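FW: tagging you since you asked about this chain on Friday. Here's the raw sequence from the shared folder, copied in full. Didn't touch anything.
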Amino acid sequence: MITVVQHFYGKNAAQRTQRWRELVQQVQSQNISERAVLSRVNIFFNRLHFIDDIKLWGKKDYWATPLEFLGAGGGDCEDFSLAKYFTLRELGIADDKLRMVYVKALELNQFHMVVAYYPTPAAVPYILDNLEGTIRLATERSDLAPIYSFNGQHLWLMRERGQGELAGEASRLSLWNELRGRVDVRRLQKPRINLDN
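HL: got it, structure written out here
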């Protein structure tokens, strides 16, 4: 994987990917709480750069795989969230505890994506966000208005406090389907710009 990333994106991208794999190995070898896992993953990915899809990929909306995100050295909010989601899943966090939540960032007056972690099904979720380094409860994030959420299986229309009404299968989301078809390392996309230059 690292060799493919280096060939496709360069040395700095390979180093980022190596650090990602080391993070996964370290966390898997330690007996730490799920909250500690969330924190380490959130901190790791929040070090990358924010850059709009149109500038990076030449498309209005493009959901990058974790390897494309690491390869490019940055991405938009969906890319941060998806990389965190896939890494948390790899680290053993159950899919029913995670959701990617499409929100309106009220202070920025724009749409945004975050990851929600539900310790129990009825709990108020914790929010992992590239705009804010601290993981906080959804009830503490009055700057975010939830619209819909999804995980590997389901899609929810959101209500208050991070809960939602089941609206069907996640496969209804075309960008999610397209992303899942590109997760294979052999199907990497080339960004228009290289953040390492």
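FW: The beta strands are 49-50, 74-75, 98-105, 110-117, 126-128, 136-137, 144-150, 154-158, 164-169.
HL: agreed, and The longest strand covers residues 98-105.
FW: great, closing this out.
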